[in-house]
TrEMBL record:
Family: Belongs to the protein kinase superfamily.
Keywords annotated in UniProt: ATP-binding, Kinase, Magnesium, Metal-binding, Nucleotide-binding, Serine/threonine-protein kinase, Transferase
Reaction(s) this enzyme catalyzes, per UniProt: L-seryl-[protein] + ATP = O-phospho-L-seryl-[protein] + ADP + H(+); L-threonyl-[protein] + ATP = O-phospho-L-threonyl-[protein] + ADP + H(+)
Superkingdom in the source lineage: Eukaryota
Origin organism lineage: Eukaryota, Viridiplantae, Streptophyta, Embryophyta, Tracheophyta
Gene3D superfamilies: Phosphorylase Kinase, domain 1, Transferase(Phosphotransferase) domain 1
GO term, biological process aspect, one: signal transduction
Molecular function via GO: ATP binding; metal ion binding; protein serine/threonine kinase activity
Domain Protein kinase: 28-292
CC terms in the record's Gene Ontology section: cytoplasm
The protein's name in its UniProt record: Protein kinase domain-containing protein
Length: 355
């Protein structure tokens, strides 16, 4: 396979990493585990005094499994290195030896799945839910503009920023360039959020391959959007396979009947059975922004008495004004002065000593 923007090459099983993205394991410290998937574990860690997320990929046992995972690792690292967006996790670097490692920025807000679970039975404010949806849509739009399909869009792969005001898309392990998709198996992605065109009777039984395109992400996005709005598990009462079967063979979808017409239209257009009838993400963003514009702004949380004449008004050169400004700058700034970043968090061990 040729290199992508000179990033990597796979030739006779040789893997080459651009030096500017090469992580030095001697400077990598691994701390508490914060996530786990079928083929990798994610840890909080440090790299050259920077707080990071460290994804350690299991290499596999058989030669076939090793080759498959190394290929997936190569694709993920190449895509992370060439695509930057405020709603995509920031790539810091990677290394293949002694084990396959991907290092990204550490997002301390936790996964969207855990955040939604913490709120139940309450739901997100509609404006917040739609705002998160716009973040997600912008991330996918960026990937699609580079010819990349994510293929595994779900709340577990969406991480909140520390202030819980924005969402970033992570985990490119299943992402593929659309020109190189070949075909995909039913094992790709997570069943409950997967597009129905990925399934047929043969696919479910034997793992055989079917054609697909970037519109699989639109379907998954619709299921995530439904979950953002309702804060309920889509296809409640069904197992993952039952949900996939119902969506593929019975055209079952979560209910959009109780939603405003504009919002229901976004959902139903994105999860249409015919992939070609689904909107692209530029259109999805526009529809979401139009809907957000129509929503009434949330009521201010400031007590009304603050705006009465009882409040003193200071002149610009008043000591009172200066003291208020000092409090504002020190206590309410964007970057509060704390020592939290210098405090150790959990137990960190040197990556180089253990591998």
């Amino acid at each position: 396979m040729d290199s992508v923007n000179g990033f990597y090459s796979v030739d006779n099983s040789e893997f080459k990493l651009d030096s500017k993205w090469l992580i030095d394991p001697k400077h990598l410290f691994v701390g508490p585990r914060i996530g786990e998937g079928a083929h990798a574990k994610v840890y909080e860690g440090k790299y050259k005094n920077q707080n990071v997320a460290i994804k350690i990929v299991h290499r596999g046992d058989s030669p076939e499994e090793i080759a498959k995972r190394e290929g997936r690792f190569a694709r993920e690292v190449a895509m992370l290195s060439r695509v930057q967006h405020k709603n995509l996790v920031k790539f810091i670097g990677a290394c293949k030896e002694p084990v396959m490692v991907v290092v990204t920025e550490l997002l301390s807000g936790g996964s969207l799945r855990k955040y939604l679970l913490s709120l139940r039975p309450r739901s997100l404010d509609t404006r917040v839910a739609v705002g998160f949806a716009i973040d997600i849509a912008r991330a996918i739009e960026c990937l699609h503009s580079h010819g990349i399909i994510h293929r595994d869009l779900k709340p577990d792969n969406l991480i909140l920023t520390a202030d819980h005001k924005a969402v970033k898309l992570v985990d490119f392990g299943l992402a593929r360039e659309e020109s190189l998709t070949e075909m995909m198996t039913a094992e790709t992605g997570t069943y409950r959020w997967m597009a129905p065109e990925l399934y047929s009777t043969v696919t479910l039984r034997h793992g055989e391959k079917k054609h697909y395109n970037h519109k699989v992400d639109a379907y998954s996005f619709a299921i995530v959007l439904w979950e953002l709005i309702h804060n309920r598990l889509p296809f409640e009462g069904m197992s993952n396979l039952q949900a996939a079967y119902a969506a593929a063979f019975k055209n079952v979808r979560p209910s959009a009947e109780d939603l405003p017409e504009d919002l229901a239209l976004i959902l139903t257009s994105c999860w249409k059975e015919d992939p070609n009838a689904r909107p692209n993400f530029s259109q999805i963003i526009q529809m979401l922004q139009n809907y957000l514009f129509k929503l009434k702004p949330p009521k201010p949380m400031i007590p009304s008495h603050v705006f009465t004449s009882e409040n003193a008004i200071f002149s610009p050169d008043s000591p009172g004004t200066s003291s208020l400004m000092a409090v504002t700058c020190d206590d309410l700034g964007d970057t509060p002065k704390t020592n939290m970043e210098n405090k150790p968090r959990g137990f960190f061990f040197c990556f180089n000593q253990c591998y």
